[in-house]
Structure prediction request, 141 residues.
Amino acid sequence: MIAVDTNILIYSIDSHDRVKRDKARALLRQPRSQADTVLIPWQVVGEFLRFLRSLQDKGQITRAKLERILRGYVRLFRIALPSLVVLDHALSLTGRHSLSHWDSMLLAAAKDAGVTTLYSEDMTDGCDYDGVVVVNPFRGC
Prediction:
């Protein structure tokens, strides 16, 4: 199973960096055509909504567009809600690795949901965190 970090969703709508936008869009399209299931952890949905709200606050998108973008992703991908074991696992991860609080929470939620690959540019590319391997799809951009 595959999960994506917030930066993948942000780049998929970013008009400033076409290379990253195209890679993010291809990444989000690719797994749907394969047997792997893509999910979006609840934390990522919340962070993406915060990003969209910041665009709305700056007048860069309308409320209707914000809702259309968010609902589009929610319809396309399974949303994974974390269980309580995520907190303990996140604490364990931060104790063993140099991870931010939010990165450890994301990895723990991914593990809890059965994810084996997390696409993100925020953590060490290729690193295996308790069975969740981080892949940076933008390396070499």
Q: What stands out?
A: The mean pLDDT is 91. The CA atoms of residues 85 and 125 lie 25 Å apart. The first strand starts at residue 2 and ends at 4.
